[in-house]
C-alpha cells in the first residue's frame, strides 16, 4: 500500500492550526471537528509524527462502516484488509467512536 488515509486528532479549537501544519508539510488537509484528514505515504506518517506540534495523534484509517450490533462490528472489522498492515504474528488494539 503506497498511500494511506491519515487522521490527525486535535483538541477542540486547534483543528485549523493542525490543518496549517499539515499544509506546511506539503499535504492537503481536510479539517473537521476534532480531526484533520490527509493522504500520505509511509514518509508522511513519519514526518507528521515528528513535526505536527498541535495534533494529539496521527492515525491510519483502515476502513469506515456503520455497525449497530457487536456481531456486525466484529464481522465488518474482520473483513478489513488487515494483511496490508500486519503480519500474522503482530498484535494490535482497536477502539471505536460513536458518530
TrEMBL record:
InterPro entries: RlmL_1st (IPR054170). Coiled coil: none annotated. GO terms for molecular function: rRNA (guanine-N2-)-methyltransferase activity; rRNA (guanine-N7-)-methyltransferase activity. Keywords: Methyltransferase, Transferase. Residues 5-59 form the RlmL ferredoxin-like domain. Pfam families: RlmL_1st. This is N6-adenine-specific DNA methylase. It comes from Listeria aquatica FSL S10-1188.
Amino acid at each position: 500500500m503506497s498511500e494511506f488515509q491519515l487522521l490527525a486528532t486535535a483538541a477542540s479549537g486547534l483543528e485549523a492550526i493542525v490543518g496549517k501544519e499539515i499544509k506546511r508539510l506539503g499535504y492537503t488537509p481536510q479539517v473537521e471537528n476534532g480531526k484533520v484528514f490527509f493522504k500520505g505515504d509511509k514518509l508522511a506518517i513519519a514526518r507528521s509524527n515528528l513535526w505536527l506540534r498541535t495534533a494529539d495523534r496521527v492515525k491510519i484509517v483502515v476502513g469506515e462502516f456503520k455497525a449497530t450490533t457487536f456481531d456486525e462490528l466484529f464481522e465488518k472489522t474482520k473483513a478489513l484488509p488487515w494483511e496490508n498492515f500486519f503480519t500474522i504474528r503482530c498484535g494490535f488494539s482497536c477502539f471505536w467512536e460513536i458518530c
